[in-house]
Amino acid sequence: MIDYSAEAEKYDASRGGEPRAEVAAAAVERLLPEGTRSLLDIACGTGIVTRRLRRPGRTVLGTDRSPGMLSLASERLPGRVVTGDATRLPFASRSLDAVVLIWLLHLLPEAAPVLSEAARVLRPGGVLITTVDKDEAYFGTPSDIAELTEPLRRAYAPRVTDQTDRVLRLAGRHGLGLIGETTFPGLGQGRGPLKWHDAIAADRIPWARAGAPGEVDALLRDLKALPDQEGPRPDPLYRVVALSRPPV
After folding, report:
1. Distances (CA, A) of 90 to 84, 97, 111, 164
2. Residues 6+ apart with CB under 8 A from 57
3. Whole-number Å distance between alpha carbons of 42 and 130
4. Do 91 and 213 meet the contact criterion of CB atoms below 8 Å apart?
5. What ranges in the chain are assigned the alpha helix state H?
6. Total H helices, total E strands in the chain
7. Per-residue pLDDT tens for 169-190?
8. Is 13 a residue whose pLDDT tops 70?
9. Taken in order 169, 133, 145, 205, is the CA torsion positive or negative?
10. 192 pLDDT exceeds 70?
């Protein structure tokens, strides 16, 4: 996994910065019930999205296990961020109106423990908002890169931890059902062949990492052969779902 403390200082700029944070927060806000008074952003990172969720009368908290990320988040949300593992949250059961998971589940070896813990801290009627299908967001619009990578991505699909159906199934074990969904664009995040080549060569792409060495080598060669090596392909379109359980 990426060393997020080491990447903290350059993290925001490398992932769309303020414009992408703005559209991500707007997507979360669209799914929050009116009157949400307490919200926890799990794996809040630098707090660039978290701070945009503050409203009069709403307490917004953040937690992350990366010291480097929390150092930056604490500047944006003084006194509102704490060190915490997503599988052992330092919050009481049934204490929060909303829990937010942005770009977390796809990084995990298993989503079940995090979803279970998120469900634990939600009050009855509370809402869990999470991104899903993150890696596939880059390939929703046809492109030469989408075509080249499709076989490896298809082979890896059963192992994707943030796949929508899997997330809904796991959340359903805790009485959480789908109540809404939306999307937001990854502004400026469409990668060209060279960036995909370098990310795969650096072992940063899970679906490529799982491929046979010969398949990956062939993909790297094919990516290098594509035209317009630095020209970005379509920006990803991220999907966000809201889950809730009926009030008791």
Report:
1. 6, 16, 18, 27
2. 37
3. 10
4. no
5. 4-14, 17-31, 67-76, 112-121, 144-156, 164-172, 193-201, 206-209, 213-225
6. 9, 7
7. 999 999 999 999 999 999 888 9
8. no
9. negative
10. yes
Place of tokens 């359980």: 245
Residue of 97, 68, 95 whose CA lies nearest to 81: 68
pLDDT at residue 34 tops 60 = yes
Q: What's the order of all strands across the beta sheet hosting 59-64?
A: 81-83, 59-64, 38-42, 96-101, 122-132, 237-244, 177-185
Q: Domains of the chain, with CATH numbers? A: 4-138+161-190+235-244 (3.40.50.150)
HSE of 150, CA atoms in CB hemisphere, 13 A: 10
Which residues, in sequence order, are CB contacts of 223 under 8 Å at separation 6+? 145, 148, 193, 194, 196, 197, 200
- How crowded is the C-beta side of 141, counted as CA atoms within 13 Å? 12
pTM of the model: 0.91
CA-CA distance, 113 to 188, in Å (whole number)?
32
- For the stretch 123-163, pLDDT in tens is 999 999 999 999 899 998 999 999 999 999 999 999 999 99
> So what's the pLDDT on residue 188?
87
In sequence order, the 6+-apart residues with CB closer than 8 A to the CB of 200 are: 208, 216, 219, 220, 223
Q: Do 114 and 94 contact (CB within 8 A), yes or no?
A: no
User: Is pLDDT of 16 > 90?
Assistant: no
